[in-house]
Every structure is written in C-alpha cells, then in structure tokens.
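Re: that chain you flagged

S.,

Sorry for the slow reply, it's been a week of failed gels. I finally had a moment to sit down with the sequence you sent. For the record, here it is as I used it:
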Amino acid sequence: MKMEEIKAVARVRGVKSGRMKKAELVRAIQQAEGNNQCFVTGQADRCGQYECLWREDCD
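Prediction finished late last night. Pasting the structure tokens below so you have them in one place:
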C-alpha cells in the first residue's frame, strides 16, 4: 500500500501521521484499532491475522 493510502486510513482512524515513516504509521493505526503493533516485526508467518489490511506489505 502506498503512503498516501496509509495516510488516508490514518485520517479515518483519527491518527495524525505527521512525519512518521510507513512502519511507524501502520503500527500507530494498529494501536488505534486495538490490535497488536506487529507490522514489519518478523511475525507475519505466525501472527494469525490473514485478513489484515497490512498483510501484503508485512515482512
């Protein structure tokens, strides 16, 4: 997902993106949603969140 798309999701969730990098912003969105802040932490193969919005970009 491109950064502008992520910023749009952040706005909807009430997260201020400021100058956050992609991973920081996605984790802030995950936190705002009440989810684990696991984006790009190496847990993609064991997190169990197969329908996650960020799954495609998560390594």
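What I noticed first: The mean pLDDT is 93.

Talk soon,
D.
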